[in-house]
Amino acid sequence: MHRYAAGIEAGVDEAGRGPLAGPVYAAAVILPDDVIIEGLNDSKKISEKKRYELRKIIEKQAVDYAVASVSNEEIDKINILNATYKAMHLAISKLKTKPQHLIIDGNRFKPYLDIPFDCIVKGDGKYASIAAASILAKTYRDDFMIKIAKEYPQYGWETNKGYGTKKHIEAIEKYGITHYHRKSFLSKYLYRLKF
Length: 195
What we know:
Elements: E1 9-15, E2 24-30, H1 48-61, E3 64-70, H2 72-78, H3 80-94, E4 101-105, E5 117-120, H4 128-149, H5 157-160, H6 166-175
Parallel strand pairs: 1-4, 4-5
Antiparallel strand pairs: 1-2, 2-3
Helix pairs in contact: 1-4, 2-3
């Protein structure tokens, strides 16, 4: 895990592009040049317990960080790619320290203001600030899904986090969809769904 460029660099990543329900989240993180956070990695490669432990360390040691989300309704209006860009832009805009360079996890990004950027495939496994952003985006989104699972316990969101697991699909077929579901993601199920 290391830096990509000199200067004030923010790593940016998202969580929740694929689920059938809930918002998409993004985080932007600026880490000190010399910081070493043990165990930092792509959020998908570490346990839930470890993610939450690392979140505390990241938030304590970061020069700056911000998290933002875009709702499922907005995802349906502008599509998931544009919603992901929007969440990333919102997170960057919430930083109190303006970055001089952005590193984005993935292969595509919509430029934000005049800030130079590079897209890095699997960057959350290569660069500390992207890994940190992936952990913040994932844990904040998980917090939200666990909270709304109390409203709709039949969908199992506290464990599946809105992804299309067997239990989730079966609940959709039995109970229909909620106002947290992404209708644009459910077109292949619509003919079977109850409203």
